[in-house]
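DM from R.C. (forwarded with permission)

"hey, sorry to bug you on a friday — could you get me a structure for this? deadline for the figure draft is monday and I only need the backbone to look sensible"
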Amino acid sequence: MAKKKRPPISPELHGAIDYGIGAANALVPGLLHMSGKARTLFRVFGLVQGGLNALTVQPLALKKLVPFELHGLIEKSSLPVYLLAPILSGVTRERRARNYWLLLGAGLVVVYNLTDWDAAAPGKKGKRRR
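My reply, with the result:
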């Protein structure tokens, strides 16, 4: 029986990507001259994501409080907020903000689906070393 291949994104890489996305959300909207409303919305997204990441049990955390698997569940369950907030706030009427939101959303879906959510689970066989 063939060994099941593990997803390519480790908890450490996921953490690095999350910090990068948080930084992008803080900087890119201003660089693209988005409205104040769009800049605020994306900065809030970045702060929430960066804050969760900083408190998640993963190698790049500032304080390891949130289990990595719970981090994934929070990311997955926050999808409705991520989808609706830009629409309800009117940010999606701005071409640059809408395009950034769609690109960012696609990236988040890819990262989520390629993350090895079981890598940090205690007692799992094949657990990755940190």
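R.C.: lifesaver. The longest helix spans residues 11-31.
me: no worries. The CA atoms of residues 73 and 117 lie 10 Å apart.
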